[in-house]
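Q: Here's a chain of 464 amino acids. Please give me its 3D structure as tokens.
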Amino acid sequence: MPSPTTPTVWWVRRDLRLADNPALGRAADEGAAVLPLFVLDPVLLRSAGLGRRAWLMAALAALDADLRAGGGPGLSVVEGRPAEVLPRVVQRSAASSVHVSADFAPYGRRRDASVSAALAEVGVELRATGSPYAVAPGTLRTQFDQPYSVFSPFHRSWLEHGVHGPAPDVAADQVSWLADPDRVELEAPDAALMDVAGEGPARRHWQAWLDRTSGGPADYKQLHNVPGADATAHISPALRWGHLHPRTVLADLATRPSEGASTIARQVCWRDFYADVLLHRPDAVTRPIKPQFRDLRTDEPVPGSVAADRLAAWEQGRTGYPLVDAGMRQMIAEGWMHNRLRLVTGSFLVKDLHLGWWHGADIYMRHLRDGDIAQNQLNWQWVAGCGNDPAPYYRVFNPVLQSEKFDPDGSYIRRYVPELADLDLTYLHEPWTAPGGPPPGYPAPIVDHAAERRDALARYAELR
């Protein structure tokens, strides 16, 4: 144990909060003072899309403000490679240990191994306490001591294992805080995001949703697939960035038992499942879990090709299929997309446009504020039929039937596709059938779904 007369470093990553934070709690318990540090890693910044980068800057500003409100000098943001930054910071501060929440993603594990080795050279230990998950990846195993590959038995094991309650909160005004002299000024955050990014907004939003008498937890099971109802909690960015820990979410849901609450908890379990899968299959970032799918014929969007034009139309929300276009436009406008639409738009890319799932995964990661490598890549593989516990390959979402079923009054489509706002509901789901065709400015369908469905099934049949 370090001496209580020496400081510690709290290395902030995906835990941008003060409450329910075991790594921060341990740093505060072991150190005479705590230096809160965020490293602007050029590797991660290069891969961060506009949505995630903007959210990160707002979230860092929010955490900095929370730390200053507790009387400290704020968050130290330092630029550079973590394996070079951390040894410098601990030597300047005379810190005896560095505390983190464990990272299980492929890059995070490599980075942390490198940092741990670099810190060992200066006699300091990297200590991981807790994780961003309700049940940490690698915890649950089958009766044959193998990782789970199917969700349902993982879910049963997850329920049997249980989840710890929230960790004790750290009172910012009860901690002695330090700052690093090489910290940089944060770039000005998007003012609009300051109302939604960070621990305070996340906790207020989550509590307000829990207290809703309509469209809240009690209605979640019934309405979570209806995008126009806007009945989801919108907490995926808060979980991705650690403004809320899933322990907190599950503990709050336990006080409001209902079928809806159980359905939300199941979604938290899916998040844990995919993180566990990626721990054991780090190659799944770029390669299909099911190896035979490497041979699936796909159309490559080389510049100037029809496939490239179709990919651009899909990304811009100009496919001519209203529900698909509404989903893509929501993502571009808000950095978030309703889960039902993530499935519909994903199926359309893979099975109507015959493009590789990885192209869609890359575009999602560019736009989504909640972009998470495990959830993103493995949900795309689920849609494509090549991942763990996937949708059957022959399941091809019909974009018109999905539209009629999940947006029956057209409220979601009208919200995000203004060209169709005044179109009669009779034609809204198939605007090409309206007298005179689609309204001005809205495209005709770029493909015929029935024909592309047959083509998709033929391509999948080649793998058998």
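Q: Can you summarize the key feature?
A: The mean pLDDT is 95.
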